[in-house]
């Protein structure tokens, strides 16, 4: 995932009556405003900055539902991300609804079928097992996935969302729910110009008696990306992704773990990917816990290890966090984390450029979130 689902609360602002057929429909405006102050130690460099989206992404969205009768509903969601600190669009300045943009049908008996840009099956499977909820800015799991690592530039990452996609979700039956997604080729301009191939993504999870178990598989067909410092376009190799996720709740403590492995196809001889060595596979392992310390206080703990196969490139790290709610909509949070890059590793939190390999990375953040 180089670019991760944040939990948000919405309130209904408008209810519209249906047509002569007396169908019910609703439109909901919802969102979150999140900003934080961050101290960052990046090798020998130390910075202090204001940023956005440290607990949940700053966003606004519209979602609608229309009851078509017989247990069938029509649904849509459009959701935009923005940077609260400066008012700019988040991540991809060419996409107004970068976070979500889809429409579909839900049947109580047969499941849900949706079309557009949406969270993929892998994201839905792993989300319950990351203590920091896959936040694109301060989740260490997201940082380990999104990091710009020279050894893995041709190994495709799972961005958490797929454009031009069709997603089918089964109804939950005896605690089991399945997902099947297929996405057509897409072109983006951020963070670098790139075209991705078609993608197949499958997932399944089970929830019951405090236990959560999830498995996912994705295959991304080859694509290309353009990086300014390279002599030509770089091939994005066909890449397989394997994900296992596990959580178990004991009273106020939710124990969490996940493991992901990204395996790239071998590059053709004498291609740029083969010559400069950008096609290594990698794995990410995470263990952690979410603790509901009081009715208004939550503590998060996570330890992770990123390992690039066939290269001296690995990063252990950890992060601790705490959220304190002062109302149903407003909370304050703190985060503190540490990464140790070994060998040629250049991992840091998302949006941070690491120019010197093998450096230590420190982060401390204090922020506020308001949901509406």
Explain what this protein looks like in three dimensions:
With 372 residues, the chain is mainly beta. It has one domain (10-371): Porin, CATH 2.40.160. Helices cover 5% and strands 56% of the residues. The strands form two sheets. Strands 2-4-5-6-7-8-9-12-13-16-17-18-19-20-21-23 form a 16-stranded antiparallel β-barrel. The protein has a four-stranded antiparallel sheet with strand order 10-11-14-15, with no helix packed on it.
Task: Give short descriptive properties of this protein.
56% strand, globular, 4-stranded antiparallel β-sheet, disordered N terminus, mainly beta, Porin, 23 strands
Write a short abstract of this structure.
With 372 residues, the protein is mainly beta. 5% of the residues lie in helices and 56% in strands. The longest helix has 7 residues, at 140-146.
In which order are the strands of the major sheet placed?
Answer: 2-4-5-6-7-8-9-12-13-16-17-18-19-20-21-23
Terminal CA distance reads 27 Å
Biggest pleated sheet: 16 strands, antiparallel, barrel
Instruction: Tell me the number of helical segments per DSSP (H or I, 4 or more residues long).
Output: 3
Question: Could you tell me the number of beta strands?
Answer: 23
Q: What secondary-structure arrangement, pairings included, does this model have?
A:
Elements: E1 10-17, E2 24-42, E3 45-52, E4 59-69, E5 72-81, E6 100-107, E7 111-119, H1 121-126, H2 140-146, E8 161-169, E9 176-183, E10 186-188, E11 194-196, E12 199-208, E13 211-220, E14 223-225, E15 234-236, E16 239-250, E17 253-264, H3 272-276, E18 282-294, E19 297-308, E20 313-325, E21 330-340, E22 342-343, E23 360-371
């Amino acid at each position: 995932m180089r670019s991760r689902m944040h939990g948000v609360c919405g309130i209904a602002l408008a209810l519209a009556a249906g047509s002569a057929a007396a169908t019910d429909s609703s439109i909901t405006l919802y969102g979150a405003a999140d900003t934080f102050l961050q101290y960052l130690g990046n090798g020998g460099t130390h910075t202090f900055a204001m940023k956005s989206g440290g607990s949940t992404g700053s966003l606004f969205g519209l979602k609608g539902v229309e009851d078509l009768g017989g247990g069938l509903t029509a649904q849509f969601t459009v959701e935009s991300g923005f940077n609260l600190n400066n008012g700019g669009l988040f991540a991809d300045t060419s996409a107004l609804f970068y976070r979500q943009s889809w429409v579909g049908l839900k049947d109580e008996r047969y499941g849900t079928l949706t079309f557009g840009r949406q969270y993929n099956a892998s994201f839905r499977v792993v989300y319950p097992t990351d203590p920091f909820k896959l936040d694109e800015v301060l989740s260490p799991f997201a940082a380990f996935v999104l990091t710009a690592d020279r050894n893995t530039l041709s190994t495709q990452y799972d961005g958490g969302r797929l454009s031009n996609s069709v997603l089918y979700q089964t109804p939950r039956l005896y605690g089991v729910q399945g997902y099947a997604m297929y996405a057509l080729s897409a072109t983006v301009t951020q963070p670098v110009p790139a075209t991705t191939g078609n993608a197949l993504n499958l997932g399944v999870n089970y929830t019951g008696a405090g236990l959560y178990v999830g498995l996912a598989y994705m295959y991304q067909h080859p694509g290309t990306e353009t990086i300014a410092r390279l002599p030509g376009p770089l091939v994005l190799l066909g890449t397989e992704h394997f994900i296992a996720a596990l959580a178990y709740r004991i009273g106020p403590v939710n124990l969490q773990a996940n493991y992901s492995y990204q395996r790239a196809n071998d590059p053709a001889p004498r291609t740029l990917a083969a010559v400069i060595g950008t096609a290594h596979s990698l794995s990410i392992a995470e263990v952690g816990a979410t603790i509901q310390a009081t009715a208004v206080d939550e503590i998060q703990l996570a330890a992770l290890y990123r390992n690039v196969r066939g290269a001296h490139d690995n990063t252990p790290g950890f992060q601790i966090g705490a959220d304190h709610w002062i109302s149903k909509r407003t909370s304050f949070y703190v985060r503190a984390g540490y990464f140790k890059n070994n060998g040629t590793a250049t991992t840091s939190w998302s949006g941070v450029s690491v120019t010197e390999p093998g450096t230590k990375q420190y982060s401390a953040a204090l922020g506020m979130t308001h949901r509406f």
